[in-house]
Design brief:
The chain is of the alpha/beta class. The chain is built from 11 helices and 11 strands. The strands form 2 sheets. An 8-stranded mixed sheet has the order 6-5-4-7-8-10-9-11. Strands 1-2-3 form a 3-stranded antiparallel sheet. It comes from Durusdinium trenchii. InterPro entries: SAM-dependent_MTases_sf, Small_mtfrase_dom, tRNA_Adenine-N(6)_MTase.
């Protein structure tokens, strides 16, 4: 869907909110589901120009207890251009990596350019972890934890094609204490892009990969923050991106698990506040430091073009 077709939804959200908050939420769901998520929407220098497509049949099962829902049957896989000459496997009609993924990886890289160990929670198809790893010298390691079998398969396909050996890809649920115990501790960086919508917000996509990526069907921001607090080094940084209407939930979870915000970036599309990215440290390492004032990053300009600031980040990342 072309971005211009969604130009008026943010304004509609503001107007509808004056009548009923639920209507505002539904319209915002439509906006964030359609704007700048599909990698094919991006400029040529970044975010997944298509290289090759294949057909991939996943089989079938019924109900939301399995990712192999009928919405994932016979899905087309695209090989899309990624960082530093790499390509990434993603479903044409499934979850496709987006600007929020790239910004999360960028902020993690900037938070500690010399970091050697990163843990990506809910790693999906691997976009955040791989975008970070592509910036690192030899010796850096990335651990990825993902619960969806379909996303794990896609990520494994990418790693095999790239012959990347520096990734430890795990299939498991971050809410499971026994799973977390197998990952190790004292990571220099932990990253996360949790589902943006509660389990009851809007309609669940028919494609189950999208549904689990977008909706809190396996926990939400609180569970991600809990896992990060357990596995992060005392001097490490936790980098997370989330939806702007969930900012209160984000701040509550960070406070609950004793994080201090070192950097905050408010992310705008066409002048509308879409997402928030935070770089946090454990409060024990902050020495009473006050939380950072919010920065502002416009990703898409009012005319639909990519902003100079965002293009500069993509160029630095090798996209």
């Amino acid at each position: 869907m072309a971005l211009v077709h969604m130009a008026y939804i943010p304004e509609a959200c503001s107007w509808a909110g004056s009548f009923h908050p639920a209507l505002r939420g539904c319209l915002w769901f439509c906006h964030c589901s359609c704007v700048a998520e599909d990698a094919s929407e991006a400029p040529k220098i970044l975010l997944g120009a298509r290289i090759r497509t294949t057909r991939w049949a996943f089989g079938s099962s019924k109900g939301w207890g399995s990712e192999r829902d009928t919405g994932d049957q016979d899905c087309e896989v695209t090989k899309s251009r990624f960082c530093r000459g790499w390509s990434i496997s993603q479903l044409r009609e499934g979850y496709r990596y987006c600007a929020d993924d790239i910004l999360c990886a960028y902020l993690a890289w900037q938070a500690d350019p010399k970091a050697q160990r990163l843990l990506d929670l809910g790693s999906g198809i691997g976009s955040i972890g791989l975008a970070w790893l592509a910036q690192q010298p030899r010796g850096a390691k990335c651990t990825m934890l993902e619960a969806q079998e379909v996303s794990v398969q896609l990520c494994r396909q990418t790693l095999e094609a790239l012959q990347v050996k520096a990734v430890d890809l795990r299939h498991g649920d971050l809410r499971d204490p026994s799973t977390l115990q197998t990952l190790g501790t004292n990571f220099d960086l932990v990253t996360a892009n949790p589902p943006y919508f509660t389990s009851t917000s809007g309609n669940l996509p028919k494609n189950s990969q999208k549904a689990y990526c977008r909706h809190e069907l396996r926990g939400g921001v609180s569970e991600f923050c809990s896992a990060a607090a357990q596995l992060l080094s005392p001097n490490g940084s936790f980098c997370m991106v989330h939806a702007s209407p969930r900012l209160t939930d984000v701040l509550t979870a960070l406070e609950r698990y004793h994080f201090t915000i070192q950097r905050r970036v408010d992310i705008f599309f066409r002048g509308n506040y879409k997402s928030v990215a935070v770089v946090c440290s454990p409060k024990s390492a902050s020495n009473g430091q006050q939380e950072a004032a919010a920065e502002r990053l416009q990703v898409i300009e009012e005319d639909g073009s990519w902003s100079p600031g965002y293009l500069e980040i993509c160029e630095l990342m090798g996209l």
